[in-house]
């Protein structure tokens, strides 16, 4: 088995050397940790799919250290591309553009004539990419289907022995993946809600943007191919709890003969809890709940094994759209329904 090294932020050069040799290095971003490999090296990219157990028709994000690096591949910025890059890069916004034919391997693009580009905020990662001198592919560094990693420890849990190293820069800030906007068609569309909210995008381009991520039927091809796969799913069944239903949810939990995990706001955890309830504190607001969501799901997978997790919901607007998108996927959209 390969030894997975941990690199400190001072060791970007060593990590960049590994990338240049075709090895896989996990890297921090402001959203979640990514799994990096030289995007111009087909063999290295193929090993990313293997390490994740990811279906090969699900294309990868091309992660760059500067807009100039992305420009090598982009054929057409459309009407809004330059504006959005100027406003939000570096940052949690991934943009899908038409690419110059043949400029990226079909292993990266899944054979599409477009590719998704992202310039992350994390300076350590941008330094590593610049030192490698090539863009790196950057899917989330989890095993396919599991919650995305928000710490180097999460990555280590999923990838130990499968990758050469992890560039560890502490926990990520946002906690859910970047917003994906498709600029390859006539109308820009949000393919995945994330750290940059739709209102920010609309304000920048002066146009209301379609969020069509919910409209994909079972037999259609979703615009972001990854959206069709099972995602973020812990071993336990997650039940979403509406803010007013916690009293009944806790009573239900208390009546069970097994331990029940709860991912609840600090406020709820201050009250008295049934003895078989295992708490995970989601903090006091939406931003902290978003930051902690994947860590909480992993906690109940790996440290406190339970069959049921009750998790708090938020209104689906702004960052709440990104939070609820991930929570619904991890639960299959199942809510705790109080019986009265
Ligand atoms: O925040 C993030 O975006 C993280 C960090 C590590 O940068 N990365 C990430 O990558 O979430 P991944 O591979 O887990 O999700 C990328 C999504 C997938 O759903 C994929 O199908 C979609 O982007 N995608 C990639 N290329 C695309 C394209 N050309 N057109 C539409 N969707 C695309
Ligand atoms: Mg992912």
UniProtKB/TrEMBL annotation:
Q: Where in the cell is it found?
A: Cytoplasm
The UniProt function text for this chain reads: Required for the formation of a threonylcarbamoyl group on adenosine at position 37 (t(6)A37) in tRNAs that read codons beginning with adenine.
Print the organism lineage. Answer: Bacteria, Bacillati, Bacillota, Bacilli, Lactobacillales
Name the PROSITE patterns on file: YRDC (PS51163)
Q: Which residues cross the membrane?
A: none
Family membership noted in the UniProt record: Belongs to the SUA5 family.
The UniProt record lists the EC number as: 2.7.7.87
Q: What is this protein called?
A: Threonylcarbamoyl-AMP synthase
User: According to its UniProt record, where is this protein mainly located?
Assistant: cytoplasm
Query: So what does this thing catalyse?
Result: L-threonine + hydrogencarbonate + ATP = L-threonylcarbamoyladenylate + diphosphate + H2O
Q: Per its UniProt entry, which superkingdom is the organism in?
A: Bacteria
Q: Which UniProt keywords apply?
A: ATP-binding, Cytoplasm, Nucleotide-binding, Nucleotidyltransferase, Transferase, tRNA processing
For this protein, the record's Gene3D superfamilies field holds: DHBP synthase, Threonylcarbamoyl-AMP synthase, C-terminal domain
Query: Which Pfam families does its entry note?
Result: Sua5_C, Sua5_yciO_yrdC
Q: Which residues form the YrdC-like domain?
A: 9-196
């Amino acid at each position: 088995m390969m030894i997975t090294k941990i690199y400190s932020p001072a060791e970007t050069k060593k990590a960049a050397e590994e990338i240049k040799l075709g090895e896989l290095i996990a890297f921090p971003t402001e959203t979640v940790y990514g799994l990096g490999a030289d995007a111009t090296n087909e063999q290295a990219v193929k090993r990313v799919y293997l390490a994740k157990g990811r279906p090969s028709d699900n294309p990868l994000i091309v992660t760059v250290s500067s807009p100039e690096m992305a420009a090598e591949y982009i054929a057409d910025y459309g009407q809004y591309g330059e504006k959005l890059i100027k406003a939000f890069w570096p940052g949690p916004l991934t943009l899908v553009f038409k690419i110059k034919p043949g400029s990226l391997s079909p292993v990266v693009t899944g054979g599409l004539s477009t590719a998704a580009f992202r310039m992350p905020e994390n300076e350590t990662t941008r330094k590593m990419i610049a030192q490698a001198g090539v863009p790196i592919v950057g899917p989330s560094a989890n095993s396919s289907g599991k919650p995305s990693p928000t710490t180097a420890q999460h990555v280590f849990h999923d990838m130990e022995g499968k990758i050469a190293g992890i560039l560890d820069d502490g926990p990520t800030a946002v906690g859910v993946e970047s917003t994906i906007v498709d600029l390859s068609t006539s109308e820009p569309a949000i393919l995945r809600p994330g750290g940059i909210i739709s209102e920010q995008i609309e304000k920048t381009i002066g146009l209301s943007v379609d969020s069509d991520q919910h409209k994909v039927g079972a037999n259609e091809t979703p615009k972001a191919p990854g959206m069709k796969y099972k995602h973020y799913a812990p071993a336990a069944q997650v039940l979403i709890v509406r803010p007013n239903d916690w009293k009944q949810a806790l009573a239900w939990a208390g009546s069970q003969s097994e331990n029940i995990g709860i991912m609840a706001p600090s406020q709820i955890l201050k009250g008295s809890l049934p003895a078989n309830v295992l708490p995970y504190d989601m903090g006091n607001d939406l931003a902290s709940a978003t930051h902690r969501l994947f860590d909480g799901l992993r906690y109940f997978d790996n440290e406190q094994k339970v069959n049921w997790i009750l998790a708090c919901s938020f209104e689906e607007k702004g960052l709440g759209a990104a939070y609820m998108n991930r929570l619904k996927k991890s639960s299959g959209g199942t809510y705790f329904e109080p019986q009265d």
